[in-house]
Amino acid sequence: MEPYYSDDQVTLYLGDMREVLPALGLQADLIVADPPYEETSHDWDRWPEGWLEVAATVSRSMWCFGGLRMFMRFAPEFTAAGWHLSHDIASKDDVDLLWEKHNASGPNKDRFRRIHEQAGLFYQGPWRDVYRDPQRITTGVIERGRVINNGAKSISHRGTYANNGWTDNGTRLMTSVIRARSMHRNGGIHPTEKPVPLLEPLIRYGCPPDGLVVDPFAGSCSTAEAALLAGRRAVVIEGREDHCEAGANRLSALLPAA
Ligand SMILES: C[S@@+](CC[C@H](N)C(=O)[O-])C[C@H]1O[C@@H](n2cnc3c(N)ncnc32)[C@H](O)[C@@H]1O
Fold first, then answer.
1. Cα 84 to ligand 1 centroid, rounded to whole Å
2. CA 20 to 30 Å from 154, out of 172, 188, 216, 246?
3. 192 Cβ closer than 6 Å to some ligand 1 atom
4. Are 145 and 19 contained in the same domain?
């Protein structure tokens, strides 16, 4: 099958993912999917019936973006295709709530103003067989008072907690809420574009170094850019030629100058 765009790390195909993925016959370490689920007026925003079954033939691990309404509505389809939910993260729009009004998505005025996105990590088969690399952030070593010596003395302790063997290496697990600036009015090229700083830790968590990430609903090719930054390969598929063209321009602009 002829790619729309390819370089050493990324290949982009134009077409319906339900036809392209079976034709490629590949196996991926991780899928990152941001499917259309009929909550906007965009003409491409139609749930592609059967996509979850196709995805299940390609990988045992998948981050899927969506809202709680979507996950509840399509839960039977996730289950029927063998996808179990491990956990979810939320991305919070990194804005000043008081002053920035433009980032709220959705037309509804009778609800809380939505400033977060959700993604669930779904997997096939036993969880123990699923690759995962919990991501950590650097905080610096924290100094705290701690009672040691049978409780006789309280000292300010830095580094190792003697009585439980835990060593503070100055890092902490990333939390399930990731702050990332919305792409709306921030250079985005797609109406529902995901920020790369949100995608990169999800990819590092679920795909081994040098592994392969598949994004079946590529949009602006944000997943491909995040995979590049994380040192992973990516195969991405997009159903609309105008989105493919914008995505290919984005990817070729990332190539080192010849
Ligand atoms: C929610 S958007 C993805 C946005 C993307 N995550 C980004 O950051 O730019 C969904 C995309 O899937 C595409 N699409 C819809 N149905 C498709 C299908 N059956 N196969 C492939 N792409 C499809 C749409 O054209 C749209 O660009």
1. 23
2. 172
3. yes
4. no
Same domain? For 110 and 146 the reply is no
Cα–Cα distance, 167 to 141 (Å, whole number): 10
Is any ligand 1 atom within 6 A of the Cβ of residue 211?
A: no
Backbone angles phi, psi at 18, to 5 degrees: -70, -20
In a domain, 258, yes or no: no
Which residues constitute the domain of residue 141? 136-173
Q: Is 115 found in the same domain as 76?
A: yes
CA 218 to ligand 1 centroid distance, Å: 5
User: Nearest residue CA, atom 27 of ligand 1?
Assistant: 219
What is the arithmetic mean of pLDDT over 36-56? 94
pLDDT category, 183, cuts 50, 70, 90?
A: confident
> Of all protein residues, whose CA lies closest to atom 17 belonging to ligand 1?
239
48 lines ligand 1 (CB under 6 A): yes
User: Based on the domain organization, do 160 and 220 belong to the same domain?
Assistant: no
Mean pLDDT of 138-164: 53
Instruction: Classify residue 193: in a domain, yes or no.
Output: yes
24 CA to middle of ligand 1, Å? 18
How far apart, in whole angstroms, are the C-alpha atoms of residue 234 and residue 10?
5
pLDDT for 101 equals: 45
Which amino acid, 6?
S
Asked if the structure places residue 83 within a domain, the reply is yes
For residues 158-162, give the mean pLDDT.
55
Q: Show Cβ contacts of residue 185 under 8 Å, excluding neighbours closer than 6 positions.
A: 102, 103
Q: In terms of Cα–Cα distance, which of 136, 141, 97 is closest to 116?
A: 97
**pTM > 0.85:** yes
